[in-house]
Design a protein that fits this description.
By secondary structure, this protein is mainly α. Helix content is 75%, strand content 0%.
């Protein structure tokens, strides 16, 4: 008995009979409604680039702060490694952002 009920729910669910959203309520993306696909892609690409650059910059600054902490504790070798890593991360992140901004 339970097997038949399960199969019926599965079949009706597969055909969308139990769907709570009618087809008319589905909104298409802007470019599918006659918008400009290139502008939409460029905008989304710029947002992704800025987000990744922000994350890299925050992590680089955290690395520099950790390096400064190692210097303060009295372990200059670890401090040099962390500070150098943070500066290199800032340079790479800034270069990647500059290149992506030029291309987009």
């Amino acid at each position: 008995m339970y097997r038949i009920i399960f199969i019926a729910i599965f079949i009706f669910g597969a055909f969308g009979i139990f769907s709570s959203t009618p087809a008319q309520a589905i909104e298409l993306p802007n470019y599918a409604q006659g918008g400009n696909l290139k502008t939409t892609a460029t905008t989304k690409g710029r947002v992704i680039t800025e987000t990744i650059s922000l994350i890299v910059a925050i992590l680089a600054i955290i690395g520099i702060i950790i390096g400064a902490g190692w210097f303060g504790v009295g372990q200059p070798e670890k401090g040099k490694v962390w500070c150098l890593g943070g500066v290199v991360a800032l340079l790479i992140g800034g270069s990647a952002y500059g290149i992506a901004a030029m291309v987009a």
